[in-house]
Amino acid sequence: PQAVLAALHPGTVDSALSAPFRGAEIGRPPTEAARDLLAVLDTLQPADSGGVGAYAGQRLPWYVFCPPLAPPLSHRTKENPMRILLTGGTGLIGQALCQHWQRQGHELWVWSRDPRKVQRLCSGARSVQRLEELSAAQPFDAVVNLAGAPIADRPWSAARRELLWRSRVELTRQLVDWMGQQPTAPRVLLSASAIGWYGDQGDTPLTEASPPGGKDFGSTLCMAWEQEAERASAHGVRVVRLRIAPVLAPKGGMLARLLPPLKLGLGGRLGTGQQWMPWIHLDDLVTLFDHLLQR
Known about the structure:
Layout: E1 2-6, E2 10-12, H1 13-18, H2 23-26, H3 32-43, E3 59-63, H4 74-77, E4 83-87, H5 92-103, E5 107-111, H6 115-121, E6 126-128, E7 142-145, H7 158-180, E8 188-194, H8 217-230, E9 238-244, E10 247-249, H9 253-263, E11 277-278, E12 280-281, H10 282-294
Parallel strand pairs: 1-9, 3-11, 4-5, 4-7, 5-6, 7-8, 8-9, 10-12
Antiparallel strand pairs: 2-3
Helix pairs in contact: 5-10, 7-8
């Protein structure tokens, strides 16, 4: 099984302005979300007075990640479309992946309790409410597991923790069990996890090889989530676990919650201003999924 940490490479204000996510190297202009975030940081206190911002050229306590862009694959994928099953396809990441892969000509299925929501948010994808409804005669090439109740929108009460656990750990267990029952197992499972796997390790540099935190609920949840996904390797499936940081997008994710109060002049320092805050832009995350899918 392969783990991918989607939050690496410390950035600076000036380098991010000129090349967010190493844009200069890959020929892309700064993203709208990156500019918005930098505008927010500009309104906050400099790092030497306890804020999360910094003057141009100084290192920010934020991490920037851009995976190497995969070579153009459209000439291959349209001729040899994949059959892909997604869970969590109606979420922020799932919608973006559906749009991207539909343009490449792949056949997409979304496992969801609400077919009308799939129709509305994942136009062109087919929906299925129960895995048993899927025909074993038509094997899937890949499974992309993004399912999970929102984790940062309300306090972690006992009931909320139970829901978070069921929607991630138990759903992944059910998914992997179904994969093992198929005459032909999918070639690859791309299974979402989160940087919460590492817990709070302070200023310790973290990589895919770093140990888990294991002391708080978030870390325990991610560890159990990944363990369920890893079981698919016993069925000959290549398993990739993606430890995803908070996602930036113009119309969703962390930035959508962060910008409104700041635009109203009601924003302020985030926490102590000394904490590390990983993040990744939605476009780069889609590129990362696509790169791992095609390997």
